[in-house]
Structure formats: structure tokens, C-alpha cells
Amino acid sequence: MSTPLPLQAQSLSKSYQGHPALRDVSLSLQPGERVALLGPNGAGKSTLMQLLTGLFAPDQGSIHIMGHDMRTAAPRALSHLGVVFQQPALDLDLSVQANLRFHTDLHGMPRATADARIHEGLERLGLMEHLHKPCRTLSGGNRRKIELVRALLHRPAVLLMDEATVGLDPASRVQLLQAVQDLQREQGVATLWATHLVEEVEHADRVIVLHKGAIRHQGRVSDLLTDTGQATVQAAFLSLTRV
Ligand code: ADP
């Protein structure tokens, strides 16, 4: 039997009160692949992320994570998924360690393995000194890095990041992107990164342009330029999303 793809979504559609937010969206991730999901505000990125994380069910279509159907085998599918949501999701009054241990406990990870991975993740991002500090004392950029470490503690096959850099200053944004890239390379996790910022697609293996709920382009960044006849990603993006 062939190895299942980390993520495979087929013909996803979703409407809110009769207004389509996603129309027939299909995408897949290869092992270790870095894919940017680029779309302006309202394109449907968060809706797609909500479907992929099982928060909502699609009206139509299917989602498989490591071959497990989100509809019929959600716990198994979700066990292979790491997520950094758009809204920060740390308990600010708890320490970094307590926040991270909560996640490893949820995944039923033995404490020794959990602590080893927590230390490794924090060391890797230069955050070890914050282990026992309340998350409230950390900068916005460091909080997001903690969420990134947390998302990878159970060694998922797929990492989803929904506009994770929103609210960060440019330096923190670059640092977070670099951290994702480093960890992603080391752990070989397939990553889908939603953003409305064209500068964030630079290091992606592939870019998916979403506009008004539909995929307008899917391919390498170089294909995006060739296919649209534009010189920059910015110009290509604007040409595909012009109203
Ligand atoms: P993005 O994340 O790309 O900004 P969204 O997925 O948030 O896009 O939104 C896609 C469309 O769906 C928008 O028109 C938005 O107004 C609509 N939408 C999103 N969530 C809801 C909701 N819970 N109820 C009604 N409409 C929604």
C-alpha cells in the first residue's frame, strides 16, 4: 500500500447563510512540503483552516489527514495535525512549561518524552530562559514562537498556520517565519501557511492563491510569475485578485 499524503482535501465547499465562502477547493500537501495559502481579507482562508482543523464540517467535499477521513475518523486525523490559530491561544497566567505540558498531556504523551521535547523546542528557538515564566511576560513574537513549539510537540505530519504573523512587528514576523522554516526542515512536517502578505510566500515550495472562496492559482512561485506574465509576486497577486 502506498504511503498516504499528509493532507488531501477534495472539492470543499462551505456557505454561511447561503453566501458561499469556499467553492470547490481541492489541495494536497506532500511530505515536508511548504505551501503558502495567499489571499486577501475575506478570501476564505480562515474558513478553509476551520474545515481542515475539523472545527466546522464542509457542506461538500472530503478531508483526509495521513489517510484518515476527518468526517469518520476525526480523532485519528487530528492526532497528525499541529495548528497555530490566528487568535493567540495561550493561558497567559500559566507558565510556558504549564502551557506546553497541557498540550502534551492532552496528547497522552509520557512526561519524560514531553519534557525532553519541550526543552528541545525551546532551546531550538532560544526561549529556554522563559520556561518557568508566565506567558504574560513574553513579547508577542515570543508567544507566537511558544505556540509554534507547542504545535509541533506531538510531531504532527501537517502544520497549519492561520495568519500567524498578524499583529507582529516586521522583525518578529521574519523571526517567526525563519523559526517555522528551520523546525519544518528538521522535522519534515508539511506546512500550510495562510497569509495575506505577499512577502511571506517567498520561501514556499508552492503557493495557492485564494480569492472569493476559489483557488485562482496553484503552483511554484516561479509558475505564478510565468502564468500571470508579471514580474513580481505582488503584481501577480493583484492581477489574480483584482475585483
Ligand atoms: P479570510 O480568512 O481569507 O479573511 P474568511 O474565511 O474569514 O476569509 O471569510 C470568507 C467569507 O466568509 C467572508 O465573506 C466572510 O465575511 C464570510 N464568513 C466567515 N466566517 C463567517 C461566519 N461565521 N458567518 C458568516 N459569514 C462568515
Protein model, in words:
The protein has 243 residues and is α/β, with parallel strands linked by helices. It has a domain at 7-90 and 156-241: 3-Layer(aba) Sandwich (Rossmann fold), CATH 3.40.50. 35% of the residues lie in helices and 25% in strands. It contains 8 helices and 10 strands. The chain has helices at 45-52, 74-78, 96-106, 111-124, 140-152, 170-187, 221-228, 233-241; strands spanning 7-16, 19-29, 34-38, 60-65, 68-69, 81-84, 158-162, 190-195, 206-211, 214-219. A hairpin with a 2-residue loop joins strand 4 (60-65) and strand 5. Helix 3 (96-106) crosses helix 4 and helix 7 packs across helix 8 (233-241). It starts with 6 loop residues before the first strand and ends with a helix. The model has no long low-confidence stretch (mean pLDDT 93). The structure holds adenosine-5'-diphosphate. Residues 16, 21, 39, 41-47 line the site of adenosine-5'-diphosphate (ADP). Residues 16, 21, 39, 41-47 line the site of adenosine-5'-diphosphate.
